[in-house]
Amino acid sequence: MKPALFHWLAQRITAVFLLPLSLWFVTSFVILLAAPFDQVQTWLTSPWHATFASLFVALVFYHGALGMQVIWEDYVKQPRPLIWLTNGVSVLFTLLGIAAILKVYLIS
After folding, report:
1. What is the DSSP code string of the chain?
2. Quick check: helix, strand or coil at residue 79?
3. pLDDT, tens digit (0-9, with 9 covering 90-100), for 60-80
4. CATH no. for residue 47?
């Protein structure tokens, strides 16, 4: 598979998966907005919620990095360093987000 086709497919696939995950996340966020911390912590200790939250974080940053790559390639003369930086920041934030979710999930 050519890299451009893979990139295009990856953007579409992540977008399709992010639609229901985003609805789940927004609905959960609105419900838990006024909840005390203990209740939110209990909610996140569910294996389903922790898995969906981790998947949401990973897909959001991957999809964002794919989109930024297109922008860098279209509008910047030398896009490689910016693409590497974007990918590095995306990986870092993905790992930090999942680590935070796992910390709450495993400690509680």
Report:
1. --HHHHHHHHHHHHHHHHHHHHHHHHHHHHHHTTS-HHHHHHHHTSHHHHHHHHHHHHHHHHHHHHHHHHHHHHH-SS-HHHHHHHHHHHHHHHHHHHHHHHHHHHH-
2. coil
3. 999 999 999 999 999 999 999
4. 1.20.1300.10
The structural domain count of the chain equals 1
Q: Burial code of 71-88, b = ≥16 C-beta within 10 A, e = fewer?
A: ebeeeeeebeebbeebbe
For 21-42, write each residue's pLDDT tens digit. Answer: 999 999 999 999 999 989 999 9
Which domain, by its residues, includes 48? 3-107
Q: What is the pTM of this model?
A: 0.92
